[in-house]
Amino acid sequence: xxxxxxxxxxxxxxxxxxxxxxxxxxxxxxxxxxxxxxxxxxxxxxxxxxxxxxxxxxxxxxxxxxxxxxxxxxxxxxxxxxxxxxxxxxxxxxxxxxxxxxxxxxxxxxxxxxxxxxxxxxxxxxxxxxxxxxxxxxxxxxxxxxxxxxxxxxxxxxxxxxxxxxxxxxxxxxxxxxxxxxxxxxxxxxxxxxxxxxxxxxxxxxxxxxxxxxxxxxxxxxxxxxxxxxxxxxxxxxxxxxxxxxxxxxxxxxxxxxxxxxxxxxxxxxxxxxxxxxxxxxxxxxxxxxxxxxxxxxxxxxxxxxxxxxxxxxxxxxxxxxxxxxxxxxxxxxxxxxxxxxxxxxxxxxxxxxxxxxxxxxxxxxxxxxxxxxxxxxxxxxxxxxxxxxxxxxxxxxxxxxxxxxxxxxxxxxxxxxxxxxxxxxxxxxxxxxxxxxxxxxxxxxxxxxxxxxxxxxxxxxxxxxxxxxxxxxxxxxxxxxxxxxxxxxxxxxxxxxxxxxxxxxxxxxxxxxxxxxxxxxxxxxxxx
Length: 529
Fold this sequence. Notes:
globular, 4 domains, 32% helix
């Protein structure tokens, strides 16, 4: 920042600037620098979670394209998804390398203190330094390059989207200059890198990486949604008949089946006829029902008729049959054919023609869990499972009224699943993103509701979390550990002071539920508007 050709007055100004910078660095407390480090570590972990989600989306899109190799939309979106991943990787590497360059220039990081064998998650040795990056970014004008990189990356992402869908991408990859203060204008890069300790700059660069990954997430979600949602792929037709209540039915009861094309979708205009009679179709799926009047095999023939995009009419014949038999055991999960570890899964068992007292039920394998009678409902059972179980069968048997011998009447296999993660919520706010200041000021509790779950009354209660508030206008970020689900008085006071531009983060949320304790994988991140 020196110039041998500068005037004495300019040299004096330069010297005063250096002194001021040094004083500012000295005034940055260790607590503030520690807070920046904690926020950066949390953001790194959040970025790792985003990486996992993006990789899953890429794999899903690639699999869809592999399953439909001639579909032009799948080919196009698979190519664009890979472009988005390349844009993200190149841009995040740029900011990662820049951060490491600054860290190396200021002495690196402290030695491993937490015993994980790594130093990249340790605090910066030059955390309070504000001179080296200021010289690089402002004097050497690298800040202009950073600003251009952010804007160019955003435009590259948006170029992958249809023109009428670009506005749906809510990206934080923006670099607006701050409004003038007391008549003085400053640039975005000056606000970010001048008079700012290295700990804050390193955190800002990590945030830029996450902004890139979040934008990539939105792009991939759009592509994935188009492939699995509105896109109709017709390239491998095959008639399918799927019984909805089994291929063996009792005389006098109904046989029900779904008849459809393997490529059927909600926009399919296919018609289905069975034995010369058109049947009702819902979202491209034929709904067939019949009631056999006698025992034995029941055979049917039908045709599925559909129109190609070219207008060509094509027909696909099919045949199917089912067998009508005397009554057998009826075993059904009260909720669905999935049972959950940690819950009392209700199972109903009945055998037409037999009283509940004549029916015995068992598990296969017996070690999968326990099946106890439901005291509230006759003929129902409560199934609890061991954590090691993956599949389980419920077997129904009866005693022969003539011989007294035990006879197996039927069985039903169920998939075993863990209860899905609840979603994190701050009071009434259940989605991260922009939130009005007036709304966030009124929130007092962290919740973990379980949305759209088959069982009612399954609750998860938060018992620990971390609260982070990053002021827009400078000052020390607030980092506080919460116990229970209520916000502490300090946290509530911080929310009451929230203004536009502040960032609120609720992370490391731990909850307890009927199946034990777990930590939620995703944090809540709010930008106050």
